[in-house]
Amino acid sequence: MSVALCCMSHSPLLEFASLPEGVEEAVHESFARARAFVEDVDPDLVVLFAPDHYNGFFYKLMPPFAIGLAASSVGDFGSTSGDLDVPADLARDLAQSVLDDGIDLSTSLRMEVDHGAVQPLEVLWGGIAARPVIPFFINSVAPPFTPMSRVRLLGEAVGRWASRLDKRVLLLGSGGLSHDPPAPQLGAAADAVRERMIAGGARPAEGERARGEWLAQVGREFADGTATAMQPLNAAWDNRFLDHLERGETAAIDSWSPDDITAQGGHSAHEVRTWLSAYAALSAAGPYEMQYRFYREIPELIAGFSVTTARPR
């Protein structure tokens, strides 16, 4: 019936960091604009493109893409834990449609998602089960990475399915933009961390607040220039990416290599893949218009932070 889009950055530090005067108000205003947009869309179904941060997917089996036929949140960094409202029959139909379009796709009946998936649901609706949602995991943290062209083609396949559906569909992308937080890298990780990156394992719930407070301190050091081994935010690169999306030039990003993305935006900038998939899905419904665009460098959140909305013309 109709397709619309909302993409937003996420950060676990939204719950822990103190933002400078004016910045917090600007972020909350961007969230308010996004909430007003999705209230107007009133989606029957949300298709969510999100990364994971070694909380649900691990190197013992790391697919480039996976769709959840059922999913639950692990509740990291104080995010909401529990089940998402995944319509299993629709998710299976979407999975088959994407496979029929030639895009290899893993499926999960016990997908676990983290703050990267649930934070936009919390921001937009105040909870993780307020709307039916089909979650897509897009590997954006664990090298090697699939080419950006495949990310775009995945989105287009999802968009063709959504355009045929007799429902109001919101495409929701969560991630990016430039950011290089102190996330573990496989080659440099201590043995215990490396083992968890490979095999997973429970993380003590009582450690989540300590992790958040530690990361908030890292954010403060990053903001005042004393943090080490972290790339600076790259507003020029972020806005070049947003310009391509605003102009409908999703194929222009095909040539962006993983090494270039890391060099320009940081190790976690690969989360722009979630945005590319969402916008490519919207493009499958025809030309679109980006109706709202917010961007700000927020070092306290260790993120080039953006919120956008878009609809078909």
Structural description of this entry:
The chain has a single domain (2-312), classed as 3-Layer(aba) Sandwich (Protocatechuate 4,5-dioxygenase, Chain B), CATH 3.40.830.10. Helix 4 packs across helix 9. A hairpin with a 6-residue loop joins strand 4 and strand 5. The mean pLDDT is 94. It has nine helices and eleven strands. With 313 residues, the protein is of the alpha/beta class. The chain is globular.
Concise account of the structure shown:
The chain is an alpha/beta fold and 313 residues long.
Helix content: 25-40%
Query: If strands are numbered along the chain, what order do they take across the biggest sheet?
Result: 6-3-8-2-9-1-11-10
> What are the low-pLDDT stretches, counting only 5+ consecutive residues below 50?
none
Largest sheet: 8 strands, mixed
- End-to-end CA span: 14 Å
CATH topology: Protocatechuate 4,5-dioxygenase, Chain B
Order of helices and strands: EHEEEEHEEHEHEHHHHHEE
Describe the secondary-structure layout.
Elements: E1 2-8, H1 23-41, E2 45-50, E3 65-68, E4 71-74, E5 81-83, H2 88-100, E6 106-108, E7 111-113, H3 115-125, E8 133-138, H4 148-164, E9 168-174, H5 191-199, H6 208-223, H7 235-246, H8 258-265, H9 272-283, E10 288-298, E11 303-312
Parallel strand pairs: 1-9, 2-8, 2-9, 3-6, 4-7
Antiparallel strand pairs: 1-11, 3-8, 4-5, 10-11
Notable features of this structure?
single chain; 313 residues; alpha/beta; Protocatechuate 4,5-dioxygenase, Chain B; eight-stranded mixed sheet; three-stranded mixed sheet; 37% helix
